Amino acid sequence: MKSPLESLGDFTLPWINDWSLGREVEALRAEVVRGAAGRVLEIGAGTGLNFQHYRAGVDVTAVEPAARMRRRAEERARDAVANLTLLEGKAGELPFDAGSFDTVLVTFTLCSIRDLGAALGEVRRVLRKGGSLRLLEHVKSPDPWVAWLQRAIDPAWRIALAGCTLLRDPAVELERAGFESVSLQAIELPLPVPVRAGVIGTATRG
Ligand SMILES: C[S@@+](CC[C@H](N)C(=O)[O-])C[C@H]1O[C@@H](n2cnc3c(N)ncnc32)[C@H](O)[C@@H]1O
């Protein structure tokens, strides 16, 4: 059973997501989404803020576990120019055959997935050989002072934001999951200090 705080989070998170990860990161979303081609799987689609950036002719399947996030995403899916199907689903249990997708896309989601190793194993399984994971994420800062701050506030941050952690290092996790070619660019996100360190890039299944 969910705690009162978790239930409140279910209600407020779609608003928080749209407010905090909206206009400021729009250009970065466009950059990561526009490169998605062929059969695309988006994991943890949230409220569907990426949907408007998919090109016409791209076949997108998007999965999102949270019902209230999905409700908003459904509205945005209707306005998308790509052929888009939105499903309830979790990264660790993807209901797709091996090699089903050319591209998998995640934005600001790896931070929220509890068992990231299992999830990335599933992402690798559903990608075809040579297919790519495209990602845009906030990460653990390389600056020791900011990293200290992130560690200090992470327990409260996780409780307030549905399990989102400030301490993820996608490069390490991707290599551990067996992605052969990991090409991530460190960037400064136009967001508050705890979530300012970011990465954008790709990891390929060899
Ligand atoms: C901060 S939101 C980002 C949403 C969206 N990707 C975006 O860029 O706006 C994180 C999302 O990850 C989803 N999520 C959490 N655990 C997940 C899991 N195991 N599998 C897939 N999505 C998950 C949450 O429900 C939430 O929608």
Q: Your description of this structure?
A:
Strands 3-2-1-4-5-7-6 form a 7-stranded mixed beta sheet, sandwiched between helices. It has 206 residues and is of the alpha/beta class. The chain has one domain (4-204): Rossmann fold. The chain is 36% helix and 24% strand. The longest helix is centred in the N-terminal third of the chain and has 17 residues, at 4-20. A hairpin with an 8-residue loop joins strand 6 (181-188) and strand 7 (197-204). It has 6 helices and 7 strands. Helix 1 runs parallel beside helix 3 (67-79). The structure holds S-adenosylmethionine. S-adenosylmethionine is lined by residues 17, 21, 43-46, 49, 64-66, 69, 90-92, 107-109, 112-113. S-adenosylmethionine binds next to loops.
